[in-house]
Amino acid sequence: MLARLGRYYVFMAHVSAAERRPQLIKAAIDLMSREGVAAGSTRAIAAELGVAQATVHYIFGTKEGLYRAVMEQLTQDLVAQVERATPEDAGFEETIRVLAAALWRTVREQPGSHRMLTELTTFAMRSPQLSEVLASHYRGLIEVTAKLVAEAAERSGQPLAQPAEAIARWILASFDGLTDMHLSLPDEEAEEVCLQVLVSSVTALAGG
């Protein structure tokens, strides 16, 4: 197969849709992390990978279909990061502290990805085609966070004063707020204080 690369044409071996799909999702994430969601047209994403625009439409149908796949991938990645960071033998407060630190590290190290996720979330709120995947994104994060909260409480012998899901929602809402502030007005010293307050407030909400 011939593909255009700048002024030149190069031969590309045939790649199945199953193989091309994750490549296009990664290309979309890379492009939109650098240049923003507004730059994520199917033409631009195809060019990022060096394939025909028709390939994107063949695999995902529409731009919204590609965005849906991107959001699903981002959800899987965030859930995996949270699960990897969870200590197996720490008490409740220490577990929350470790999780908060691990998540915050991704914000500092990957600001483009978090900025893109914020933009995608706003875009999805306005798009009927993406409303369900946005709800699924938050359901997935709430579910895994609530599970980790409940496990930490059980491990430390601390009865929860509030439902694990309510505590999970508070953690995620607080984290989203801190992330938005960091992306708009970063202040490392103030953010460290806010993270400590977040851990203390979650511990108090849980009844510790």
List keywords for this structure.
single chain; TetR family transcriptional regulator; elongated; Arc Repressor Mutant, subunit A; 75% helix; 9 helices; transcription regulation; two-stranded antiparallel ribbon; Tetracycline Repressor, domain 2; transcription cis-regulatory region binding; DNA-binding transcription factor activity; BetI_C
Polypeptide structure, described:
β1 (2-5) and β2 (8-11) form a beta hairpin. The radius of gyration is 20 Å and the shape is elongated. It is built from nine helices and two strands, in the order ββααααααααα. The longest helix is centred in the C-terminal third of the chain and has 26 residues, at 131-156. The termini are far apart. The relative contact order is 0.11. It folds into two domains: 1-61, Arc Repressor Mutant, subunit A; 67-206, Tetracycline Repressor, domain 2 (Orthogonal Bundle). The protein has 208 residues and is mainly α. The chain has a two-stranded antiparallel ribbon. Mean pLDDT is 88; it is low at 7-13. It has helices at residues 17-35, 42-49, 53-60, 63-85, 92-109, 111-125, 131-156, 164-184, 188-206, and strands at 2-5, 8-11.
Please outline what is shown here.
With 208 residues, the chain is mainly alpha-helical. Helix content is 75%, strand content 4%.
